[in-house]
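Late entry, evening session. Most of the bench is empty. Finally got around to the prediction I had been postponing all week. Sequence below, unchanged from the version circulated by S.P.
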Amino acid sequence: MGVVTGVRVAVRRARLLPPWVQRADAAAARRVNGWHSHPHVDRFWSRLTGFADKGVLWFTIAGVLAVVGRRRAAARGILSLTAASALTNLIAKRIFGGDRPTLEDIPIGRRLPVQPSSRTFPSGHSASAAAFATGVALESPRIGAAIAPVALGVAYSRLHVGAHWLSDVVGGITIGAGVAAVGAAVVRPRPGPPPTPLPAGADRELLASPEGEGVFVVANRSSGTSIVRTDPLDVVRDRLPLAEVRILDDDEDLGEVVRDALARSTPPRVLGICGGDGSVAAVAHEARRAGVPLLVVPGGTFNHFARTAGVPSAEVAVEALQRGEGVRADVAELAFGDADPITVINAASVGIYPDFVQAREVLQRRLGNKWLAGVVAAERVLRRAQPTTVVVDGRRAQVWTLFIGLGRNDRDTPAPLQRQYLDDGLLDVRILHAGSHLRAIASLAFGRRSAGLLRRLRLIPERVEAYTDTEVTVDVRPRGGQPPGFAHDGELAVDEPAAASADLSAPGYRTTVRLVPGALDVYRPAVRTTRMEGPR
C-alpha cells in the first residue's frame, strides 16, 4: 500500500492541451496518489481495470443482456464501444499524444504489473466504458442506469492505478458518450423490450381453472429477478384467489415440496412454478411423473423456456390457465450411468459454461446479486479456462463447451441456451472445439447478434461443429483430477460424479441426453393460427 510522501507530481506533457489542464491533472494526481487506501481496495481497482482490458467486461455484460432478450441494447453497446475504441486509439491518441504519469509518483501497491506504453490522451478504457453504457442506456434507460456505476468505476480505476491523468479520463468519457449519441442519430434507438415472438407449438386444450382451484404454485425466490419486472406472485394471488402458493424456504428441496403436495389425499391437478429455468425444469420433472399440466410463471433472471412458450409475464400465464389454453412440449432426459434421468427443458452442457454456472452460484451467495455474480464469475472462468476432453458418440475431442439444446436453433448462435421450437423432435448439438483462451468467450456468447459481432472481431472459436440427433452419449474426462460439472437449464446438474477418475485413460463418467417428444403439457395463450414453417 505504498503512499506518495512528497507533494511533487510530475506535470504531464501533451500536445494541444492548454497549461491549465496539465496543472489540473497534476493536482488531481497528487490527490488520488495521496489517498491512504487499504491493499484490498487497491487490488479491487486493479482487477476491475484488468477485467476491462480489450473490452472483456463489456462483452461479458453484452452476453448477459443478449440472453435476457435485450439484444438491441447489447448490440448498440458493443457497436458504440467498437467505434469509440477505434476513434480513440487510431486517431485521438495520435493527435494529442502525451506521456503517462511517472511511475515513481504512483504508490507501489497500486502499480499495474505491466504499465501501458501507448500515448495517454484520451483514455481508451474510459471511452469504451462510456460508449457501452450510453449505447445500452439509449435502448434501455433502466439497464443503462444500472451499468453506469460500473462504467464510472472503470474510468476511475485508470486514475487509481496511475495509468492515466484526469483529463485523459474526462476526454475518454466525452468521446465515448459522443460516439454513442452520433450512433443514435444514425440508427434511432427503440426503447423497451423487444416484441414477443410468435410462440412455437400447436395449441392444446388443457384443464381450465378460472380462480386457481386445484392449482399448487411453488415460488423459488433464489432464482433471481428481472431488473424491470414487478413481483409476479402479486398477480398470481390477485387473479387466482383459490390457488395454493408456497414460497420455498432456503433449506427446502424444491422436488420434495412438490412431491409432498402430490402425495396428499387430494393432490393438485395443476403444478405451477414461479422461478427461473432451473426451477421450471425441476417442477416439470414432477409434473411429467404425475401426468399433470405445468403452469410457468416467469420469476427468474432469464426465463428462456417461458419466453419460447410465449409466456413473457405472470399476467399471460394466468390468463392461459383461466382459459385452459396450452401446448405440448418436447423435453430431454439427462442420465448419468444407471441413475434416474433428470428432465431438461432447454439445454445441457459441459465445459467452461458449467464452470461459469458453478462460480456464479458461489458468488451469488456471497454478493447477493445474480447479475453481479455472473459478471465476476465470467471474468474468473475466462481467465482460468481449460479445455475439456470429451468423447461424443465415440469421437474424442478437446472442447471449450459442448451444448446439447432442445430443437434446432440458429446456426449463427454458438450456444443454443434458448430453444426456438417446443415440438421440433430433435436435439441440436454444438461442439465448440478448443482454441485460444480469448476465443473461449464465445462459450458465453448467447445471442445471435452478440455472436455475430464476436465473429466479425474474430473471437469465435475456429471450429464450431453443429449437427442434430435424438440421443447423444458423452464420456467426460476429468481435468487435473477434478471432473468437470454437467449443467442443464442454468443449473449445475452434477459436480463430481463418483464414476469419474483422475486417470485420463479411464472413460470418465458417461452421460446420455435423450429426446422425449411431447412429454410435457404447458399453459400458454392459444395462437389460433397455423405456424408458418420456414427454413431452419
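Two things to note before I forget:
The chain has a mean pLDDT of 80.
Residues 124 and 212 are 56 Å apart (CA to CA).
Will write this up properly tomorrow.
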